[in-house]
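step: validate -> pass
step: tokenize input -> pass
step: predict -> running
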Amino acid sequence: MVPSMILKCNRYRIAGMRQDRRSTCPISTALEFVGDRWTLLIIRDLMFAGKRHFREFLQSEEAISSNILADRLNSLLESGLVTRRDDPTHAQKAVYSLTDKGIDLLPVLVAMSAWTQQHYPRTRRPEAADLVSRGPKSLKQLEGQLRRDHGLA
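step: predict -> pass
step: emit ->
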């Protein structure tokens, strides 16, 4: 039963999707939006590190290059996961914020962190372990805080 569902998932196209989409499978489609390393790390930094400016993202320990960062930020803007507005404190800066759609990725990042910590124990950082150990009520509170921080509440 499951293999036939997967075949159907990959065979049909949904009207209204961009023509360059190859699949209507939800996992495949999600990967088209957030499936590369850099995109999820930018979302991570917006959620958990309070980064909001281009130069702040460049300072992450993973050392993203400026051209890749610019490309991924543009992709996040186009997909509606992030917004960009001029920084009122500096004419040459922009402020990036998560949208509701972007904040809805919180449980995905928490699940990825839990899986990684379970299977690769060396990745356990105190802040990541704390995030994973929180209950649903605490994650809802964090989601609410993210909405406030990103101007959505």
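step: describe -> Confidence is low (pLDDT under 50) at residues 6-17.
step: cleanup -> pass
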